[in-house]
Amino acid sequence: MPARLLVAVGILLAVLGVSACGSDDNGGKPRTVTVVGSGKVTGTPDTLRADIGVEATAADVSSALNEASAKVRQVTDAVVAAGVERKDIQTQQVDLSPRYSSPAPGGTADISGYQATNTVRVTIRDIGKASDILAAAATAGGDNTRISNVSFAIDDDADLMKKAREAAFDDARSRADQYASLAGDSLGKVQTISETTSGQDQPAPLKQDSSVAATRVPVEPGEQTLTFTVTVTYALS
User: Fold this and answer.
1) Which end of the chain has fewer CB atoms within 10 angstroms, the N or the C?
2) C-alpha–C-alpha distance, residues 226 and 140, integer Å
3) pLDDT (mean) for 1-8
4) Which range (33-42, 54-63, 137-146, 151-160) has the least confidence?
């Protein structure tokens, strides 16, 4: 075989050998392991939010709206006097709808009046005053008062979230280390990270007293758990 042909064959074999050594069973893609880690921390809620509304029924639209407006102003003034700042009171809903009479057999229902609803969301930043504030609202609104969507929250949860992230990531790293060891591999660099969190704004049961002068509403914030979940993909080597 001529010398030039032998040299060409040798170069070709060498190139093929390098390509074979650089390939793997994953089509050239890096091998990875994806794990989910979780972290939980607990804290004491420092904020209570509640939707406080009033309903008014009258024979005409103007009377219903005027009564609801007057009542919601009384409720607003009462919660401000009890310790809520006006910037923490926000209108959530204003609604006006007709009321219908019960028709006689074979007859049709007629409009018998109108019902107006005005609801504000109140943020109470001093949990110690929450009971008195809710009672003041119920007293000001009387039987027209409607309290709903009461929930606790941690207003400044930055430190708790940081601790939850650290716990979740440590958990993910531990799981990934174990899987890499079981597979006979070493854990490489992080490829992707995604996260989710839950646990804020926990609803609180509330019993409403519709008496003219409402008593203190029992409010117990308890503890709140923040749960952080992180999904991490590591390279394997």
Assistant:
1) N
2) 36
3) 42
4) 151-160
Domain boundaries, the chain: 26-45+155-206+218-237, 47-100+111-153
Q: Which CATH class is domain 26-45+155-206+218-237?
A: alpha beta
The two structure tokens encoding residue 95: 């609604």
Residues 110 and 9: their CA atoms lie apart, in Å, by: 100
Give strand pairing partners of 123: 49
| 146: Cβ contacts below 8 Å, ≥ 6 apart | 52, 53, 54, 55, 117, 119
Closest CA relative to residue 32, chosen from 169, 170, 179, 166: 179
Q: Per the structure block, which two tokens stand in for 29? A: 């893609």
pTM > 0.85: yes or no: no
Q: Domain 47-100+111-153's class?
A: alpha beta
106, 39 contact by CB (below 8 A): no
Distance CA 2, CA 124 (A): 94
